[in-house]
Each structure stands twice: as structure tokens, then as C-alpha cells.
Design brief:
This protein is α+β, with helices and mostly antiparallel strands and 358 residues long. It has helices at residues 45-53, 99-104, 111-124, 140-152, 170-187, 198-204, 222-227, 232-238, and strands at 7-16, 19-29, 34-38, 60-65, 68-71, 84-88, 158-162, 190-195, 207-212, 215-220, 242-249, 252-255, 258-261, 270-275, 280-282, 301-310, 314-321, 326-332, 342-347, 353-356.
């Protein structure tokens, strides 16, 4: 028999004013695993987290920790008895307590054991030198480290994190995220992280659960969920996309880039062919002289440059096609063609996604 998941939620539901905010959500998190609940604001991520923490009551469904039920429709373990740690965007450190006092808050062991646990965690998060300082004397990144140490001090089985890094500047955020992840994995804590930032989820998660309108629409490892999106909206959440609209005739969709095989789709049904900007290719050798069929993947399409911008490590070039549709291409390094220039565009068939048009 396999070990029970550290955290399991089964068919959680919660409605407000007749609207389902959390709609039949289920997931599991193993010890040492980081799962990200990813989605736009208002999709139900934070409400799910509050239900798990015990701050909010569900209308239906159950929550389990290490195979033991902690709440269902009739009984519930209070928040303080669930063995769950919490970290939020607002670190909520106690201003009247020192760093040591904040980390020790809530510990119930002997004074000697508490001091040892505080020293161990502050050393782990690199804050030993600040043990006697107060929150107002610390930077945002230092406060975040103290908040992490405080949340880990009681050795929670599960850590719930709601946008904990969004208050940090970009340069500091990456370092703090990586350090936090190392500490949590070393503790063997099961982590459920809420974020609306795909980059953060991709960087931190072992598994991503993509939420939309209260439901989990797709779950999987970051690589899989990025490269096999369940629908056009899922693809668009992780990056800009180009959409080629077409109708199916005889299992083929005719586009400016040639025909696409669309098996199993009814004749006349509309489809969206999705391609990310980095996979839209420019035939630099032709530079407006017409397509070169020896290098084209399918049929090249004629694009007129609408706008080009340098983005730092790459250039973003926007085109208008002959049929009036618009496409974006990402080109490594500096490439800034003038407005009105004609270039021939190709798409990588192996990087396209084809979805029924919603």
C-alpha cells in the first residue's frame, strides 16, 4: 500500500451569492513537493487556500492530511490543530517582537529547545546576524526570510503560500524564491503556492494546477502543461500567442501558411491554430523577394511589418498578413525592420496547437 499524500483535497466547493467560486476542486501534494495553484485574479485560488487553512468553510468536499480527514461537511479540525503553516504577501511580523521573538512565537517546547529551533532556522535563512533586530529595521527581503522561518518553526506538515513574493522587487524576488524553495524542500514540507504569475509557477513548481472560473482546468509538470495546453486560453496564459483562424473541409484547414491536417473535426467547424511568437520564423534570406520553398515549413505567408521593438534580449516584430490578420514574431538579439517592410513568415508545424474555436 502506498503512503497517503501529505495533503489531499477532494471535490471542494464554495459559493458566494449563488456563484461558485471554488467548483469541485481536487488535488494532492506529497511531502517535499511544491504545487502551484496558478490562475488570474478572482479564479478561486486564494479561497481554496483559505479553506485548506480552516479560515474559510467549504460547502462540500473534504480535506485530508497524511490520510487523516481534517474537515468535511460535518466535522472540522480547527486551524491551529491542522499542522499547516501560512505565508502571505503581507509578512505580518509582530512589530513589538525581535526577529528571535517573531520566529519563536507559537512554539510550545521548552525555552532551551525553542532557542535551538530559532537559531537553526535563522541560520538556514541567513538571518542569524539579525536575531536581536526588529521588523522595522529590516528590508523587505529580510522580513520575508524571517516570516519563512516563523512559519517553519512549528514544523508544519503543509505550507500554504499566497503570493508571498509579490511585494519584492524583481531582482531580489528570484533569489528569495530559490532560497525559500531550498529551505522548504530540506524540511520535507508539502507546499501549495498560489500565484498569478506563470514565470513564478514554472520556476518553483513540481506540479502546476491551472485554475479558471473556480475549476482546475489542467494539471501537470511545468514542461507538460506549457507544451501541451488543454485549450487556447491555457496556451495564452503562459505566453503571447498568435491565432490563425480557419474552417475544416475534408479534415483539412486552409490557412495563409498552407493546409493543416485536422482529423476528427466536422466539416465546416471553425478551429484556431495557435503558435507562440518565438515559433513564428522569418525567412531572412528572402527579405521580401518571395518564398523559398526549400526552407519553408508548409507555405510561407507574406507579412508587412507593422511595428518592431527591442525588448532587451530579443526583438518583438508585429506583422499584418495579406488577409488582414496580425502576427507577432520574437527574434533573438536586435532585429528592427522598418514599418512597411515585406518579409516572408513560416511557422513550425510541430509547435502548433489546434483547438476547436470557442
Amino acid at each position: 500500500m502506498t503512503d497517503a499524500p501529505r495533503l489531499e483535497i477532494r471535490n471542494i466547493q464554495r459559493s458566494f451569492g449563488g456563484r461558485a467560486v471554488v467548483d469541485d476542486v481536487s488535488l494532492t501534494v506529497q511531502p517535499g513537493q511544491v504545487t502551484c495553484l496558478l490562475g488570474p485574479s478572482g479564479c478561486g485560488k486564494s479561497t481554496t487556500l483559505r479553506i485548506i487553512a480552516g479560515i474559510e468553510k467549504q460547502d462540500a468536499g473534504s480535506i485530508w492530511a497524511d490520510g487523516q480527514m481534517i474537515c468535511d461537511g460535518t466535522s472540522r479540525v480547527p486551524p491551529e490543530g491542522r499542522g499547516i503553516g501560512l505565508m502571505f504577501q503581507d509578512f505580518a511580523l509582530f512589530p513589538h517582537l525581535s526577529v528571535a521573538g517573531n520566529v519563536a512565537y507559537g512554539l510550545t517546547g521548552s525555552a532551551r529547545k525553542n532557542r535551538a529551533r530559532v537559531a537553526e532556522l535563522l541560520d538556514r535563512v541567513g538571518m542569524s546576524a539579525h536575531i536581536d533586530r526588529y521588523p522595522h529595521e529590516l528590508s523587505g527581503g529580510e522580513q520575508q526570510r524571517v516570516a519563512l522561518a516563523r512559519a517553519l518553526a512549528p514544523r508544519p506538515r503543509i505550507m500554504l503560500m499566497d503570493e508571498p513574493f509579490s511585494g519584492l522587487d524583481d531582482r531580489l524576488r528570484d533569489d528569495i524564491r530559490d532560497e525559500t524553495l531550498d529551505v522548504l524542500k530540506a524540511e520535507g514540507t508539502a507546499v501549495l503556492l498560489v500565484t498569478h504569475e506563470p514565470g513564478e509557477a514554472m520556476r518553483m513548481a513540481d506540479e502546476i494546477a491551472l485554475m479558471r472560473d473556480g475549476k482546475i482546468v489542467q494539471k501537470g509538470a511545468p514542461y507538460n502543461i506549457y507544451n501541451t495546453p488543454v485549450d487556447k486560453e491555457a496556451a495564452a496564459f503562459f505566453s503571447d500567442i498568435n491565432v490563425v483562424q480557419a474552417s475544416v473541409d475534408g479534415a483539412l484547414a486552409q490557412t495563409a501558411f498552407g493546409q493543416f491536417l485536422v482529423p476528427g473535426v466536422t466539416d465546416g467547424a471553425p478551429v484556431d491554430i495557435v503558435i507562440r511568437p518565438q515559433h513564428l520564423k522569418i525567412d531572412f534570406d528572402r527579405q521580401g523577394k518571395g518564398p523559398n520553398p526549400t526552407i519553408a515549413d508548409g507555405t510561407p505567408a507574406r507579412g508587412i511589418v507593422k511595428r518592431a521593438r527591442f525588448m532587451g534580449n530579443e526583438s518583438l516584430v508585429e506583422f499584418t498578413l495579406d488577409d488582414g490578420s496580425e502576427m507577432k514574431a520574437v527574434v533573438p538579439s536586435v532585429f528592427l525592420p522598418k514599418k512597411g517592410m515585406v518579409l516572408w513568415l513560416m511557422i513550425r508545424r510541430d509547435k502548433c496547437f489546434i483547438f476547436p474555436r470557442s
